[in-house]
Amino acid sequence: MSTVELSFSALPVHVRTARLIVTAVARRSGVAESLLDEVRLAVGEACSRAVETHRRHCPDEPVRLELSGADRRFEVTVSDTVPGDDPAGGLPTAPDAAEFEYGFGEDAAELGLAVIAGLADDVEIAATPKGVQIRMSWPAEAEATI
Q1: Torsions phi, psi for 90 (to 5 deg)
Q2: 18 φ/ψ angles, rounded to the nearest 5 degrees
Q3: Where in the chain are the domains?
Q4: Structure confidence by residue, pLDDT tens digits, 58-90
Q5: What's the pLDDT tens digit per position in 5-37?
Q6: What's the CATH class of domain 4-139?
């Protein structure tokens, strides 16, 4: 499957559109119907986090998504342009299993990461000088049709 790239302005209303597009591409990529709600919710959390971060730090910069499928995997990367070392906008690391068992404080960013990690099959978070990337993937049962 070719990579599908999507960028949108940092407005909450565009998160719904991103979720719908990702769900359609996931379906065409062979992701099982039973996983599509998980894909939709995880991508919605990642996009909402990026939109909120952009609105605080760089409202004119777009949020970017990359969707791809290879080796029977469907992968989504949500990227923002707020440096990861920014204390107000960056995300340090993905939560570990112990944090799920005992819960989170009231920090919405950590809670969003917990939701993403619980919904996606595989999650990687990279904080770079250019921004934060959340990469999520799910198994695809069939070869991609795009």
Answers
A1: -80, 160
A2: -60, -45
A3: 4-139
A4: 999 999 999 998 889 999 999 999 875 444 444
A5: 999 999 999 999 999 999 999 999 999 999 999
A6: alpha beta
